[in-house]
Each structure stands twice: as C-alpha cells, then as structure tokens.
Specification:
Domain IPT/TIG: 8-91
Radius of gyration: 59 Å
Domain Exocyst complex component EXOC2/Sec5 N-terminal: 133-855
Largest sheet: 6 strands, mixed
Distance between the termini: 177 Å
Helix content: 55-70%
Structural class: mainly alpha
Number of strands: 11
Number of helices: 28
Function: Component of the exocyst complex involved in the docking of exocytic vesicles with fusion sites on the plasma membrane.
Region (Disordered): 420-440, 637-658
Organism: Gekko japonicus
Length: 855
C-alpha cells in the first residue's frame, strides 16, 4: 500500500496525565485530511477512536479510555499516511476509591456556554460549539473576490449557520480546488454526522456501556431469583416487598446525599458565576479601567474600550449588563466634560486642540466642539489684545513697572537712520558736553511703540493657529476615521459652510480691534469719543517723535505680510492697509513739521558770508534740510504691494503732507524776512528749546554788529533770487519723485509768497538808497540862491549832479560786491528815480535864460 502523505507525528498532548475518560487535546503534524481519513487512535495501548473528534491536520480531541498501561505513547493512524509515531507520552492515573458519603471535588465542564440570546428557540449552536469545518476536509480558500460572489449570489451567505446559507457559495469560497474524491469523503462525513444526530448522543452511550451491562446483569439476576422463588405470582408478595425496599432505599439515599448534592449545586452555581465573570470581565472591569486610563491620559484606550462595549452591550436586555454599561456611560460622560473643559482652556496648542476635538467626536459629544473651540479662541485673542493695552497704559502712568522697555538694537529697523533729523534740528551743538552724552536714550522705545510691537507679535503668534483650526474644521481633517464612517465629518462640513459668515465676522473683529488699539495709541484723533474710551487711555501730552513712526510702520507692515501669508482674504485685511496709509501720512506730517522747526532755526545759523554768486549758506542748508527729511522718509513714502500711494494727501489730516511742505517753505520765507529787517539781537528765539538757545550753540555765527540794513536786504534779495530759480524747483522735483501729487500748486503758492517778499524787500532797499539821492537834488540845484533866469555862463556840471552820480556809483559798488545779478535791477530803479525827480524839478521852472537853458 503506497501512501501519498507523510505518516502522522504527535508532538504534544494536553493534559499529559489524567484518569480514565479524561478529555485531551492531541497536537502534531499530518494528523489526517478529515474525519474519514482518521482510522486509528491509541493512547497507552487503548483505542480511543470511538471518542475521537478530528479538528484539523494538526489537532484531534478525544477521551482517554480504560488502559492497562500506566504510561504510553499516542499513536495516530490515517488512510493517507499510515501508522504514525509520537514524541510525547501520556500518564494514566488510577482514581482513588471514594466512599458513598465522602466529599469529592465536582468536575464542571469548561465548555458550558452561557447563552445571552433572548430568542433561544432558533436552534443555532453557540459560537464555541459550532464546527469550524462542517465537511471534515481541508479548507482551501479560493481567490474569488467577495464582491463578485455577492453579486453572483444576491441575498445569500456563505455562513453555514445563516438562514440564507448558499452551499454553492461556500464550496466556491472554501473548496474551489478540492478534488472529487475528497468531496466524496466530505459527503460520507456529513452522512455520518447526520446519523449521529438521528441515533442520539452515541458518545454518552459508549461512555456508559459498562454501567448498562452491570444494570442488565442485576436485572437478570433479580428476574431469575423471582422465577426461582415462584412467589412473584402471589399478588403483592415479593414484588410489593421489593418495591417498598427500593422506596426506602431511595428515601434513605436522598437523605444521605442531600447535603452532598446541595454542595454540588452550590459549587455548580459558583463555577457558573465565575465562568460568567471570566467571560465578561471586560465589561465588569471597564468602569475602573476607564478611571485609571483617564488619570494616565490614555484617552485613545478609553475610546476604543467604549466603542467595543457599546457594540457588544449597547442594546443588551440583561439587567446586570445594563447596570454596568450605565456605569460606563456615566464615566464616559464625565470624560466628555473633562475633554471639553481642556478644549476650551486657554492657552493651548493647535495640536492639543485637534486632539481633543477628535476625542470628543469619537465619543459622540453633543453639540459642535470644534466650533466651540473656535469661539473660545476668538474671545481669548480679543481679551489678550485688550489686556496688553491695559498693561502698557498702566505702565505708562507709572503704576506697574519702573522702567521702559528697550528695543533690540540688532533689529533691522533702527531709529538711528532718523537720528540725523534730530541732529539737524538742533543744528550745531556744543562739542564739550554733547559728545560725551550717552546716546542710548535714542533707542528707548516709548510705551506706544513697545505696545504696538507686543500687540502685533501677539496677533501674529495667535491668529495663524486660529486660522488653521478653521481650515481644518472646514476640510474635516479634525476627525478620525470613526467619525468619518459615522457621517460626523459630513455634518461638520455642512456646519462649517453655514458658519462661514460668522467666522468672517470673528476675523473682522480681531482686525478691527488690532487697528483701533493701534489708532488709540498713535492716532487718537482718528477715533470717536466712545471708541477712544474703549481703545484709548494713553497719555497724550507729548506727541510721538517722528523717528519712531517709521519703526511702527515697518512693524505693522510685517504683521500685514504675516497675515497675508495665511491666505486670509484681502477684504478682511483692508482695514490694516487703511491703518498703514494713515500712519504713513501721519509720519510724513510729523517729519515735515520737524523740518519746519528746523527751518525756523536756520535763521539763527545765518553767518552773512557771501560767496561768489552773492549767496549765503542759508538756501543750501534749507534745501539739504528738506532733502534729508525726504530721504529719511523713503521707506515710508515707497508703497508696498497692495498699499495705496499717499499722493501727498491724508484721510485724517485736513492740510495733508503738501500743506505741511508749503508751511515749511512759508516759515523759511518768514525767516528770510525776519533776517532782513531785524538785527541779530532781535531775532525771535522763543521757538527754540533751552538746549538750542544755549550760548555755545551757534559757535560759527559771525556777530558782526556793523552789518548794515542795506547789506542785509541785498543778501536776502540775492538768496530770494536763488530760491526762486533753483531751490524751490529742485525741491518740487524731489517731491514729485517721492510720489507727491499736486506739487505744482504748492510750488506756485510758495513762489508767489517768495516773490512778494522779494518785491517788498526790493522796494525797501530802493527806498533806502534812492530817497537820499533824490532828496539831495532840489537843495543842490538851488544852493547859493541859484536862479534859472539869471545865472552865469556854465563852465561845467554843477556839484549836485556830481554828488548824485557819486551816490549812484556807491550804490553800484555796494550791490556789485553782493551780487552782480542785482546791479541792473537796482541801478535801473535808482536812475529812474533820479531822472523822474529831475524831470519834476525842471517842470517846476517857469522860464530859463540862455545860460540857464544851457546849464
């Protein structure tokens, strides 16, 4: 006989010792292909084939028989592999004899099943008793896709315990490659199993054969005794006596074993209860496990256990299970509240917020935790912004801190680039004390500047997480796969679409608070009275110096760029653009106002030293002052992408930057007039600070008290000409280059004012020079009682003409030494005045003699 498979090999048995009829599990290799293939099984030399149950090619379950040997091998014989071998052995124990009233441990079968199903009449075997392989042959899973099988057998199932069981589906799925001979063996196995069910529980009969035989022998003996006695025919004699004896014996036995049987029932109940506790210890221990895991922070474990308990016991009708499941729900509800409190707690990171939202969604929390978190974050950001303002306002008033914050000197935006403005405003400072002065005071930030920096950093640090949380809420990335399957993600997306306007309002409120808080600190005049009470409160006695405004503008610009990087819509950020525009205009205004103050101080710097072109340093210094102001404003004047050009006009400044520029020019023109008409001692210094009006401030000024008024007028006239032809035109060009619009109008106004001053000064100078000459003509003509009707023959030009010519020549020399360009303009007017006076005097003469006419 040839075998196609290897012989069976037993490698393990559990338990490895026991008394007769002990149930054992045999494990090994090649233990047969099915029930029909298993033809022999011996343990310690005793055949156990009648109680053998083939489970798989590596497992057989059976009961040990009444063997003679105390220890022996386990031998398995199959049709396909023949007689096998064993590497383990089984030890047969002899049971101790127990008396009729002796106590003994009660064996409780561990295979007892506690049936939870409310409907117990379906006839479905419990899961632990269902055969894993009903055909008794090896299962060979095919490669047919489950979806195709479902389409091929609609409404059917491959589960043999189902009411819609399809045999064809089961065979295709599990035995598509099984041979026909093996299928025949499977049919024989099914018939054998059916015969077992019809014949009853054959295993119990086999196990009690000896008892049946002994009972039969006893009955036969009794029957023979009765026949031999012959008294069974007597009614009620032997049979009645025997019945009475048996009844008494039964009653005595019941009395004797009542206590033993009670202990047995109690032990069975205890074992059954322990069995139930063991099988459902997950549910019974779950409340305590939930408490422990919550304390450790293992929320994922709690959620997984809760989902498992909900699927198993959520709809149970067993009272004890309902009681424990209700306790689980109580603990989970407390966990929901704890997670919601942690979610709404501030401050918290975006990672923690997403984690808590996912936990709450998996726990099916009521409401919308994600939206609640967004609302809490919005309120917290607004509160942070107002708290920041209150702390700095108190600090400014001296109620909190004793020192002002210092800016980082290594930052890219330093006020030192504007420091020259203050140096030019103070002109020439003394070198002894000023050079050694500690200049770190320049970098001490005012409270408003430090507040804007802190406020923008706060918004830039908090708003990105707030915006990302909303984006995650919209696209559903806050939820786990469990929430996605339950449809919670779709509901969340629908809620997000409905709340887009609400979130937009939140962002606008944050932007509005940011802008108004900055306006309250830097531009309080741009807020209404009610808004100023809420967003203001700063000390406004001293105006913020112009050197800090560019730094503030740079800070707000960086904040705007950071928010733009989040892809926040531009319409929500337009209010910040408006703020930047107003700050730029305000910075231009303050800088030009400082330039105006510098222009006033230029009057004190006039040294009256004239160069070859008849100019002093004053026009050049004025031009440099204005040019430096424009240069210091370059970063402010240049418009970034998305910003509105300042155009020289402001939304909050009625006059606008161009008006300030015109004021600067007008102040300088007034300084020229003041210089031309007042001596040095009369120059107005009330606008100068104590430091500026110090004695050593104007070390380079020439205190030439002999400088005449006429010379001052000529020098100022020369400067006015240069301003008109060069300086104002150059400044207008630079203003246009820096984006100012309407410069022509302002330039024309300044030109008109300058020309008016020039004309007044010119008339004043002509009056000073021409009047003495004109006034000397008439007295000179009639000196010595000169009479035009009676005069001598003239021998030359009379002295009054010579004196007039000498005076004209002196004027020419005076003008020429100052400015050659003024000579024609001045002399023409003086000669014209002299000629007009001579013409008038000649017209007054009634008649001339011959000599008089010749004269």
């Amino acid at each position: 006989m040839s075998h196609t498979r290897k012989p069976p090999l037993v490698t393990g048995i559990s338990p490895n010792e026991g008394i007769a009829w002990t149930k054992v599990t045999i494990r090994g290799e090649n233990l047969g292909t099915g029930t029909a293939d298993l033809i022999g099984l011996t343990i310690c030399g005793h055949s156990c084939i009648l109680t053998a149950e083939w489970m798989s090619a590596s497992k057989i379950v059976c009961r040990v028989g009444q063997a003679k040997n105390e220890k022996g091998d386990i031998i398995v014989t199959t049709r396909s592999g023949g007689r096998g071998t064993s590497t383990v052995s089984f030890k047969l124990l002899k049971p101790e004899k127990i008396g009729i009233l002796d106590q003994s441990a009660v064996w409780v079968e561990e295979m007892n099943y506690y049936d939870m199903r409310p409907d117990r009449n379906k006839g479905m075997p419990p899961l632990s008793l269902r055969p894993a392989n009903p055909l008794g042959i090896e299962i060979d899973k095919g490669r047919f896709p489950p979806k195709e099988l479902e389409a091929l057998f609609p409404g059917m199932s491959a589960d043999f315990t189902s009411e819609n069981f399809s045999a064809a589906w089961y065979l295709i799925e599990n035995h598509s490659a099984t041979s026909f001979d093996q299928l025949k063996m499977a049919v024989m196995h099914l018939k054998k199993q059916a015969n077992k069910k019809n014949e009853g529980s054959l295993a119990y009969v086999k196990g009690g054969l000896s008892t049946f035989f002994e009972a039969q022998d006893a009955l036969s003996a009794i029957h023979q005794k009765l026949e031999a006695d012959g008294t069974e025919k007597v009614e009620g004699s032997m049979t009645q006596k025997l019945e009475n004896v048996l009844n008494r014996a039964s009653n005595t036995a019941d009395t004797l074993f009542q206590e033993v049987l009670g202990r047995k029932d109690k032990a069975d109940s205890t074992r059954n209860a322990l069995n139930v506790l063991q099988r459902f210890k997950f549910l019974f221990n779950l409340p305590l496990n939930i408490e422990r895991n919550i304390q450790k922070g293992d929320y994922d474990v709690v959620i997984n256990d809760y989902e498992k308990a909900k699927s198993l016991f959520g709809k149970t009708e067993v009272q004890v299970f309902k009681k424990y499941y209700a306790e689980v729900e109580t603990r989970v509800e407390a966990l929901r509240k704890l997670l919601l409190d942690k979610l709404l707690e501030t401050p918290s990171t975006l990672h923690d917020q997403k984690r808590y939202i996912r936990y709450l969604s998996d726990l099916h929390a009521e409401g919308d935790p994600a939206w609640q978190c967004i609302g809490a974050q919005h309120k917290w950001i607004l509160q942070l912004m107002h708290n920041c303002k209150e702390s700095y306002v108190k600090e400014q008033k001296g109620h909190v801190l004793a020192h002002s914050p210092m800016l980082d000197l290594d930052t890219e935006v330093r006020p030192s680039s504007l420091g020259h403005l203050s140096r030019s405003a103070s002109l020439k400072r003394g070198s002894s004390n000023q050079s050694s002065r500690d200049e770190t005071w320049r970098f001490k930030a005012p409270q408003q500047v430090a507040f804007v920096e802190k406020l923008t950093k706060l918004v830039v640090s908090q708003l990105p997480n707030f915006w990302k949380l909303w984006i995650s809420y919209v696209n559903g990335s806050l939820f786990s796969e469990t929430a996605e399957k339950s449809g919670q993600m779709e509901r969340s997306k629908k809620n997000a679409r409905q709340r887009q306007n609400d979130f937009k309002t939140m962002i606008q409120q944050v932007m509005k608070s940011l802008v108004k808080l900055i306006r309250g600190a830097l531009l309080p005049f741009s807020l209404g009275e009610n808004e100023l009470r809420e967003y203001g409160g700063w000390e406004t006695k001293s105006e913020l110096s112009g050197q800090w405004l560019p730094h503030v503008i740079q800070t707000v610009r960086l904040c705007y760029e950071s928010l733009t990087a989040l892809e926040i819509p531009n319409d929500m950020l337009q209010i910040i653009q408006d703020l930047i525009f107003d700050l730029r205009v305000r910075c231009i205004m303050i800088t030009l106002q400082h330039t105006t103050e510098d222009a006033k101080r230029l009057a004190e710097k006039e040294d009256w030293v004239v160069d070859n072109e008849g100019l002093t340093c004053l026009p050049s210094q004025f031009e440099q002052c204005v040019m430096h102001s424009l240069q210091s404003l370059k970063g402010v004047l240049d418009s970034r992408p998305g910003e509105t050009s300042h155009g020289g006009q402001g939304t909050q400044e009625p006059a606008g930057p161009l008006g300030a520029a015109a004021s600067t020019a007008q102040v300088f023109i007034d300084c020229l007039e003041q210089l031309s008409t007042k001596p040095d001692s009369d120059v107005d210094t009330t606008h100068l600070s104590a430091d500026v009006s110090s004695p050593d401030l104007f070390g380079s000024i020439h205190e030439d008290s002999s400088l005449s008024l006429e010379r001052r007028l000529l020098i100022v006239l020369s400067n006015c000409c240069y301003l008109e032809r060069h300086t104002f035109l150059n400044l207008a060009e630079h203003f246009e280059k820096h984006g100012f619009q309407g410069v022509e109008k302002i330039t024309q106004v300044s030109m008109d004012s300058l020309k008016e001053l020039d004309q007044r000064l010119f008339e004043m100078y002509i009056e000073l020079k021409a009047d003495p000459i004109v006034g000397s003509l008439e007295p000179g003509i009639y000196a010595g009682y000169f009479d035009w009707k009676d005069c001598l023959t003239p021998t030359g030009v009379r002295n009054y003409l010579k004196e007039a010519l000498v005076h004209i020549i002196a004027v020419h020399a005076e003008v020429f030494t100052v400015s050659k360009e003024l000579v024609p303009r001045v002399l023409s007017r003086i000669v014209e005045a002299v000629a007009e006076e001579l013409s008038r005097l000649m017209q007054c003469v009634s008649s001339f003699s011959r000599n008089g006419a010749l004269q």
